[in-house]
């Protein structure tokens, strides 16, 4: 899933994520994509995906760019904390692919059209976590 806010950047993250899925031969029909208004809304959507029973992992993409207001402070930390809580509460890997940058140039650099793209890296992390959890002993209820 991806935040629409800062769409010029987040669309680049989605493109990187799609490349990673293709490079790792993940069948596109097994991936569900959703857009949320902004990074602050990612945790609630992640929770819905994680609790659906159909998600092996959730990848949350977005871009929070520091500006002249306190917006960054009110969005970036709570977004990360919310996504972490969803992962811990559900046992489903929730990967933080949300850029938190000082400026647009840093965001463009982290969403480049190559393997350094943080959307690409987030998908690789999700695949690694799914593989790891498949190999670990199941949780005791």
Name the CATH superfamily classification: Lumazine/riboflavin synthase
Structural class: alpha/beta
Main β-sheet, spatial strand arrangement: 1-2
Number of domains: 1
User: Fraction of residues in helices?
Assistant: 40-55%
Rg over C-alpha atoms, rounded to the nearest angstrom = 15 Å
Number of helices: 5
Give the CATH architecture. 3-Layer(aba) Sandwich
Main CATH class: Alpha Beta
Report the count of strand segments: 4
Could you tell me the strand content as a percent range?
5-15%
Q: Give the termini separation.
A: 29 Å
Shape, per Cα inertia axes? globular
CATH topology title: Rossmann fold
Question: Can you give keywords for this protein?
Answer:
alpha/beta; two-stranded parallel ribbon; about 140 residues; Rossmann fold; single chain
Overview of the molecule:
The protein is an alpha/beta fold and 141 residues long. It has a single domain, classed as Rossmann fold, CATH 3.40.50. Helix content is 51%, strand content 14%. The chain contains five helices and four strands. It is globular, with a radius of gyration of 15 Å. The model has no long low-confidence stretch (mean pLDDT 96).
Summarize the structure.
Helices cover 51% and strands 14% of the residues.
Itemize the secondary structure elements and their pairings.
Layout: E1 2-3, H1 7-23, E2 35-36, H2 42-51, E3 58-65, H3 71-90, E4 94-101, H4 104-110, H5 118-135
Parallel strand pairs: 1-2, 3-4
